[in-house]
Design a protein that fits this description.
By secondary structure, the protein is of the alpha+beta class. About 35% of the residues lie in helices and about 25% in strands. It has 10 helices and 12 strands.
């Protein structure tokens, strides 16, 4: 009898559409691998979700949710209570990684380089510049670059307009790191490889990530060999410092803009449930490492756990 897997997808965060695409791709490849697969489009209705899981009685949940409520430890807690093994990280690692300010503290304590910055209130942002320009403003607990703003020299405004603010009372302000966008996939106890992401938009924002042609992926990242190895080491170190399990993806900046100085990495964040479509970064890096999409999701299901 085939192992039954339920794919959780959709959700009600700003990343709902991306999650639906991830879930559909993962479900299709899990079926190819021979699993008995069902999907649940997660809505803001806890009773229906629990009833659906109880009815399906899965051996494993494949968590393809992205963003708040699906990636931040809350769904993971429900699955722990129900004693259902699930893919990706547990409650603590998920909540730490999703909280950018908390994750930065963990990285810094582990000796991982991070950008200088501080948590600032809405009132501070509305009053004027909160750091010397250029700097970046980030919602503390959103993913996929949702709400990220770069405030540059010569800009007429400093971040968000009052009507645009939908990120709670505080955001994270950080010094802007020039250079190149590097991402590394981690699977269990090894890094699969590094990708450089380029975009004509000048910033790898939500549109660049998900619009057709919005970005280009250079695999493997064209870095000096020592720098490439450093990127993999930092990603695995961040994965372990947060207590992640399964698959994660670390996003870094590589500042090689000073011709007389060696390049330097800065850790931006770790995504505990990265995108899983056919064109997403993690499956792409898995393929570079010699692993098909079907093999990747199979590994994730076979290594699923819960903290029951």
């Amino acid at each position: 009898m085939s192992k039954r897997v339920v794919v959780l997808m959709g959700g009600f965060s700003a990343e709902r559409e991306v999650s639906l695409a991830s879930g559909a791709a993962c479900a299709a490849h899990l079926e190819q691998a021979g699993y008995a697969v069902a999907t649940i489009d997660v809505r803001r209705d806890l009773q229906t979700l629990i009833a659906g899981l109880e009815m399906a009685n899965p051996a494993v949940v494949f968590n393809a949710l992205h963003g708040r409520f699906g990636e931040d430890g809350r769904i993971q807690g429900i699955l722990d209570i129900m004693k259902i093994p699930y893919t990706h990280s547990g409650v603590l690692a998920s909540s730490l990684a999703m909280d950018k300010a908390a994750a930065k503290k963990v990285f810094a304590q582990a000796g991982i380089p991070v950008a200088e910055g501080r948590v600032v209130s809405k009132a501070e942002v509305m009053a004027g510049d909160v750091l010397p320009r250029p700097y970046v403003l980030k919602p503390i607990n959103e993913g996929s670059s949702v709400g990220v703003r770069i405030v540059k020299e010569g800009d007429n405004q400093h971040g968000y307009g009052d009507e645009e603010w939908s990120y709670g009372d505080y955001v994270l302000a950080e010094r802007f790191i020039p250079g190149r966008e590097i991402t590394v996939a981690v699977m269990g106890d090894r890094a699969l490889g590094a990708t450089e992401i380029t975009s004509d938009r000048g910033f790898y924002d939500y549109t660049a990530k998900y619009a057709p042609g919005g970005s280009r992926h250079l695999v493997p990242a064209p870095l000096p060999p020592e720098a490439y190895d450093d990127a993999l080491i930092l990603a695995l170190k961040a994965h372990q410092a947060l207590g992640c399990r399964g698959v994660s993806r670390a996003d870094l900046r590589y500042d090689d803009t000073q011709p007389d100085q060696p390049g330097k990495f800065v850790m931006l964040e770790v995504n505990t449930q990265p995108g899983m479509t056919q064109t997403s970064l993690v499956p792409e890096l898995a393929a570079y490492a010699g692993m098909s999409f079907t093999e990747l999701v199979t590994w994730m299901v076979e290594n699923a756990k819960c903290d029951a």
